[in-house]
Amino acid sequence: MLIYLTNSLITNNYDDITLIKKCVRNLCIAYEESKHLLLGDYEVLNWACHLIQDETSQLVLNKLIQEYSLSSIPRNITEYIEVGNWQEKDKIESEGIVIHRVPFSFFVDSGFCQKSCVIVEDENDYGFYEHILKWFIAGRGYNYNFKCIQGGGTNMGRTISTTLENENIAVAFVDTDIRFPGERIKVNSTCYNCQQAARAVESSSVFHLHVLNLHEIENILPFDIIIGLDWNQEDIKHFQYLIDADENGNIMRFFDIKKGIKKTNELIDSEDYLQFAQQCYLANPQLTSEMDFDARMDITDDKGIIYPGLGRPLTKIIDYFHAHDITLTPFTLLPFQEEEWNNIGQNLLNYGFSRSMEAIN
Predict the structure, then answer these.
(1) 136 Cβ partners below 8 Å, 6+ apart?
(2) Gap between the Cα atoms of 146 and 114, Å rounded
(3) 129 vs 217: CA distance, rounded Å
(4) Model confidence band, residue 360 (pLDDT cutoffs 50, 70, 90)
(5) Cα separations in angstroms, 77 against 1, 305, 350
């Protein structure tokens, strides 16, 4: 992540100077090890360079001073950290830029200067998100560095809390599990618990919770690539009908691609869910030629299939992009998917942005 040293660090207070030296030294090491990117005001860089004499800090601070006139906060970074002589953490948002203003004590412990954490529900999720990041930064020459932490699905909220007891900087991704337009995030759902955990760590950590505004991660996979992979042909035909009927994500943002729609008490008791299920059903001429929606509901047993799902395409897509460079592979995204890809890429870049791995001369 981009960490910016401000002139407010300059002081004559001996006790503060001792701690500021530890903070800056730790950040110089993190920069040298390509865990983060470090910039700063010219005056504080010079002040720190005269104050801190170890070899790594001298190399880093002199480099930042020499390159100061050419250095600026990249316009593609929309969230970063400012370090200063402040009493507590604050967050400022202005014109689409988020600045976390943290006191120097934030980085006095070197354990809190490690690379940013990405917390995901499943390790396969990060495999796909990393491909999105490569797509997002293609041609820009940016470097990134993360530590991936698997949230354990329903334990994501707890994982966020425990991770940020030992880490300072993290971004987490969670989907909503909403199944039809207008459905609200359920109390005590994975997403709800993550939102509660995010509020609890807000004042003590640099943290961003990215809530995917859709059912699951599968809903943002490129459908044209999915169609071309190895599937049961009957299942892929049902899937294609939904893609063809989709208008601005009104179906494919919410449809459970893995499981489809089943006859459950929740379906029966929710007029909105029933309406969505009927919308999907009516988009499929093969199903409607067999019987109408009401008849299908009547003859289907509890937990039986009303509209079939496709299966589990995530690992297939990850394998596909391992074999085909995502920056060179043509594919199509629906508008809601492209918006989500850009948001995911932006948050990963913000939190993973780091110095390139070349040696410091």
Answers:
(1) 341, 342, 344, 345, 346, 348, 349
(2) 9
(3) 9
(4) confident
(5) 9, 45, 6
Q: Within the chain, how many helices (H) and strands (E) appear?
A: 14, 13
- Strand, helix or coil at 35? coil
Rg (CA), the chain: 24
d(CA 95, CA 90): 17
The number of CA neighbours under 13 Å toward the Cβ of 314 is 17
Single-letter amino acid code for the residue at 297: M
Euclidean distance between CA atoms 237 and 333, whole angstroms: 19
* % of the chain residues with pLDDT over 90: 91
Two tokens, residue 128: 């796909």
pLDDT tens for 156-198 read 999 999 999 988 899 999 999 999 999 999 999 999 999 999 9
Q: Strand 2-5 relative to strand 353-354: parallel, antiparallel, unpaired? A: unpaired
Q: Which of 44, 50, 85, 52 is nearest to 68 (CA)?
A: 44
- Beta strand 97-103 with 147-150 is unpaired
Runs of H (alpha helix) within the chain = 14-32, 42-51, 55-66, 123-136, 156-166, 190-201, 223-227, 233-245, 265-269, 271-282, 285-290, 293-299, 314-323, 335-352
Query: What residues form DSSP beta bridges with 82?
Result: 4, 101
Tokens representing 107? 């980085």
Per the DSSP assignment, residues forming a β-bridge with 100 are: 81, 91
Compute the distance between CA of residue 304 and CA of residue 66 in angstroms, rounded to an integer.
68
Is residue 255 helix, strand or coil?
coil
